[in-house]
């Protein structure tokens, strides 16, 4: 066997182990009884240590050196070597006992978070979250020393390879300057329109689920390789060729679950469209989380809050829930789905105010990783930031700093990818509609095949063949900038839409 085939076989086995972890994590979040938490934590910790051991195997350095000299490798194999080296370099910075400690702390914190969130009890979560944060600082410092980065940039690099906070600071500061004034403009435009009441529930959960499944099918989700379930926080997870999504239901508002389903389906379509020939190799994975978030936000925000989509979906909504009257008219539903209203919950936020939620979390997690702010002060800092950025007064920690699972689950450095993803989504959707002008009219007919085909060719099937900027340039003609995102917001919300 050649060195490359040794590497390919080895990382194929590591991928299989990672798939097992993915399904166990999904089960923990969706179906596992509370009493199994301790046993599951031990199992997950062991599997993660084993996976870490495979990624840091002492033979990998020699295999990489020998494979580099193989002149018969093609571009996909060369890119796979690059991604293997990236993983190996980062993971060898961590001792296995730190990986084990992190896994156990995360498992305990996630379970406590569910209770703390329900009870708006930050004090109860504090010691668990402090343990996770302490370990994340240690992980960031170890990786940062290896990569020559700050602890925060080293954590960010796990989710956005090559991403740096200095660049994000510039982008986010620009948005933070633009959005408050623009939000006031949008609210003024909305205030001049006749007010229409929202559809009134209750909306039976089984009917909401049926509508969600119908929309997933229209989008192109493959039910032979996935499923829809319920969790405290909507997510997309599972394993290769077993891509599972979740949502959460509110009988008083069917829009929350529906938009959650559409968002997570965007993630799932990306996962289901990755290159099958390299599915179990690092080069076959998704190209970073800003691109992943772009796919969920492209589906949910760009496509499924368009006038064309609502024209298709409105009759199905009326049929599903037996709706009639002014609140169920197509234009009224579109106005509802594009209503701008500063609120407390990130996952329910509109396109205009959503970036403020992310900017707040980004600034807070940077300060916490740098130990520039005591964790005990997080609720007060959160509430002050919400007042400053969105003008809302947070009534309790359930609607404040306890609403997201990311920090309890160890996802430090993840949050900025959401707004980077929104900007990327606008740029990609603009390019797709320019290349295939029938995409939006087809969506109005419930036909997403043109959009999905373009995404499959230009994004999904590319895996990690290219670096993020190179992939985006290949697909859209330029690296990421805020131009398409701002233009989209102005067109849809600034009085032009």
């Amino acid at each position: 066997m050649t060195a490359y085939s040794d590497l390919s076989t080895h990382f194929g086995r590591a991928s299989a182990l990672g798939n097992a972890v993915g399904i166990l994590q999904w089960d923990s979040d969706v179906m596992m009884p509370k009493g199994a938490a301790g046993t599951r934590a031990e199992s997950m910790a062991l599997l993660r240590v084993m996976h870490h051991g495979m990624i840091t195997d002492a033979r990998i350095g020699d295999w990489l050196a020998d494979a580099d000299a193989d002149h018969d490798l093609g571009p996909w194999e060369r890119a796979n070597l690059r991604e293997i080296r990236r993983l190996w370099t980062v993971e060898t910075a961590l001792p296995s006992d730190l990986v084990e400690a992190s896994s156990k702390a995360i498992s305990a914190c996630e379970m406590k978070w569910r209770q703390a969130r329900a009870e708006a009890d930050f004090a109860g979560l504090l010691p668990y979250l402090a343990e996770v944060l302490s370990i994340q600082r240690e992980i960031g410092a170890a990786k940062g020393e290896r990569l020559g980065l700050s602890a925060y940039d080293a954590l960010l690099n796990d989710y956005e390879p090559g991403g740096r906070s200095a660049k994000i600071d510039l982008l986010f500061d620009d948005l933070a300057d633009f959005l408050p004034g623009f939000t006031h403009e949008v609210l003024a435009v909305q205030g001049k329109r006749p007010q229409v009441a929202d559809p009134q529930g209750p909306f039976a959960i089984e009917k909401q689920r049926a509508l969600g499944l119908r929309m997933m099918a229209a989008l192109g989700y493959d039910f032979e390789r996935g499923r829809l379930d319920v969790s405290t926080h909507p997510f997309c997870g599972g394993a290769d060729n077993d891509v599972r999504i979740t949502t959460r239901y509110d009988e008083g508002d069917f829009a929350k679950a529906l938009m959650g389903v559409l968002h997570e389906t965007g993630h799932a379509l990306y996962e289901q469209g990755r290159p099958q020939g390299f599915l179990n190799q690092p080069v076959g994975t998704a190209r970073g989380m800003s691109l992943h978030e772009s796919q969920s936000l492209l589906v949910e925000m760009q496509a499924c809050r368009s006038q064309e989509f609502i024209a298709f979906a409105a009759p199905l909504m009326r049929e599903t829930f037996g709706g009639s009257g002014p609140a169920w008219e197509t234009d009224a539903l579109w106005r509802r789905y594009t209503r701008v209203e500063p609120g407390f919950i990130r996952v329910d936020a509109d396109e205009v105010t959503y970036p403020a939620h992310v900017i707040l979390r980004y600034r807070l997690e940077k300060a916490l990783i740098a130990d520039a702010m005591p964790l005990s002060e997080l609720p007060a800092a959160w509430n002050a930031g919400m007042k400053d950025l969105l003008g809302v007064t947070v009534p309790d920690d359930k609607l404040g700093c306890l609403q997201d699972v990311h920090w309890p689950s160890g996802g430090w450095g993840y949050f900025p990818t959401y707004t980077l993803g929104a900007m990327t989504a606008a740029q990609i959707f603009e390019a797709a509609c320019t290349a295939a002008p029938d995409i939006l009219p087809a969506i109005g007919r419930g036909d997403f095949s043109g959009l999905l085909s373009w995404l499959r060719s230009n994004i999904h099937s590319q895996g990690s063949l290219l670096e993020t900027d190179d992939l985006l340039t290949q697909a859209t003609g330029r690296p990421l900038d805020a131009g398409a995102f701002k233009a989209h917001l102005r067109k849809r919300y600034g009085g032009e839409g």
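The CA atoms of residues 26 and 59 lie 32 Å apart. The chain has a mean pLDDT of 95.
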